[in-house]
Amino acid sequence: MGSPGRGAGLYFSRASGRRRGALPWLSMWRVPGLLCLRVARRSKLSGPWNRPAAFMSTLLINQPQYAWLKELGLREENDGVYNGSWGGRGEVITTYCPANNEPIARVRQASMADYEETVKKAREAWRIWADIPAPKRGEVVRQIGDALREKIQVLGSLVSLEMGKILVEGVGEVQEYVDICDYAVGLSRMIGGPILPSERPGHVLVEQWNPVGLVGVITAFNFPVAVYGWNNAIAMICGNACLWKGAPTTSLISVAVTKIIAKVLEDNELPGAICSLTCGGADIGTAMAKDERVNLLSFTGSTQVGKQVALMVQERFGRSLLELGGNNAIIAFEDADLSLVVPSALFAAVGTAGQRCTTARRLFLQESIHDEVVNRLKKAYAQIRVGNPWDSNVLYGPLHTKQAVSMFLGAVEEAKKEGGTVVYGGKVMDRPGNYVEPTIVTGLDHSAPIAHTETFAPILYVFKFKNEDEVFVWNNEVKQGLSSSIFTKDLGRIFRWLGPKGSDCGIVNVNIPTSGAEIGGAFGGEKHTGGGRESGSDAWKQYMRRSTCTINYSKDLPLAQGIKFQ
């Protein structure tokens, strides 16, 4: 859901120290939050400073302190294609750790021949899977959840190592997949449509739901486990097979997750191709978008690339589920509880180093509280504990790639040109890896172009507002419509915010951050966010096709609307 920035291409491709005096509510950072995504890098990045070349050439997986990677079935070179058996005849890529830019391991991606073979096997596997009763499919999904539970710490550590998010968020992301598996198990006994009364005697209308067939899932780097989990668990209990292409820069995570799922399918004597994997770049993503055998394509990524995906899928009259960019706002009124506003803005703006689709990028403060909130935020930002994301006390890790660092710097400079003042941060940190200072910018006009541009980095633009009417308009004036939140005690204002003239977003919060959604509700947004919905509520309907069935159990043949045809 957010954009990694320009140059992403068809995203389908392309040591810690704890500060004293930390504010007590910073512990809220340990609450795992939800989702979002973006692009990938293919080039080898430079290693950390003052390391001998011979040492830098060693893959992390071969170093003793990273031996735990082998608990996930990973090795120095890994097959990136799974369709019941492992293989891969495409390009070999290396994935890197964002905290130090050292190489972790290699993955052999899918060739077009691998893709063709995998789609055929997935379609064949679907014929078996669709015949299994939904509650029995739910039992298999339950086992997948249990298998993920057993590996939650080690898989969460891999998310931290390869994606760069802090460890509690990495583990929390795996927990999210576990939670959606639990949710899907119950849902497997509830999916279905109503029986409707007919106007004709001796007739009944039945709404029948069936699986669409093969669901393609393209995910991004920032939630490399959870977003696939949202799609996979629900699609499976609905009776679909899945074909996954993750972000190239998190290919090891894609491989590790698929190995866990494959073992469960094997133990149940089911075709492994029910949950297929094709690691790859733009060629694989484009093939999925254009392939009529892919009945639904779920894409999470930038708005720019999502538009290309939508056009390719629509050209063949296929179905797409889009989770794209977000330019999310927090609005704090003068009656707000500032003990909620400050930690919420901090968590929403700086969590995952600003790389969530639900990251708060705009903060609107009523004039009377503007200066106090900005000062409190600056003090809070100064106490953020920075370090290796896998260290236990760290709250803030690196950006995912060096390209993201460059985009961060470009956005800061553009904000200055447009009249903004950097009151905190704005620089690259003097340490190995892709670390930047979390940044606060004040003084911009609400309509400033940079404030209307989603930059996947920890930059928070702060604005003053006078009244409710103008700030509701400002919230909605950006092209995206993912997440939004107000802080107020005014009950009437709350319901106006939730109503037709309030927020136009898919996620509309009150007195909580913009990020950290729960799996029980439908997740997604409006406008340039794409309109798709994943996870809970009735999002399962997107993975199925609906038929209205009229059954005549009488001996007569009356026509609807009283028509006589004699």
TrEMBL record:
Gene name as annotated: ALDH7A1
A molecular function (GO) term: L-aminoadipate-semialdehyde dehydrogenase [NAD(P)+] activity
Protein name (Swiss-Prot/TrEMBL): Alpha-aminoadipic semialdehyde dehydrogenase
InterPro entries hit by this protein: Ald_DH/histidinol_DH (IPR016161), Ald_DH_C (IPR016163), Ald_DH_CS_GLU (IPR029510), Ald_DH_N (IPR016162), Aldehyde_DH_dom (IPR015590), ALDH7A1-like (IPR044638)
Assembly and binders: Homotetramer.
Protein family per UniProt: Belongs to the aldehyde dehydrogenase family.
Reactions listed under catalytic activity: nonanal + NAD(+) + H2O = nonanoate + NADH + 2 H(+); hexanal + NAD(+) + H2O = hexanoate + NADH + 2 H(+); (S)-2-amino-6-oxohexanoate + NAD(+) + H2O = L-2-aminoadipate + NADH + 2 H(+); an aldehyde + NAD(+) + H2O = a carboxylate + NADH + 2 H(+)
Thylakoid in keyword set: no
Coiled-coil stretches: none
Superkingdom, taxonomy of origin: Eukaryota
EC number per UniProt: 1.2.1.3, 1.2.1.31, 1.2.1.8
GO cellular component: cytosol; mitochondrion; nucleus
Major subcellular location class: cytoplasm
Locations listed in the record: Cytoplasm, Cytosol; Mitochondrion; Nucleus
Keyword terms: Acetylation, Cytoplasm, Mitochondrion, NAD, Nucleus, Oxidoreductase, Transit peptide
Job description of the protein: Multifunctional enzyme mediating important protective effects. Metabolizes betaine aldehyde to betaine, an important cellular osmolyte and methyl donor. Protects cells from oxidative stress by metabolizing a number of lipid peroxidation-derived aldehydes. Involved in lysine catabolism.
Record carries keyword Kinase: no
UniProt pathway: Amine and polyamine biosynthesis; betaine biosynthesis via choline pathway; betaine from betaine aldehyde: step 1/1
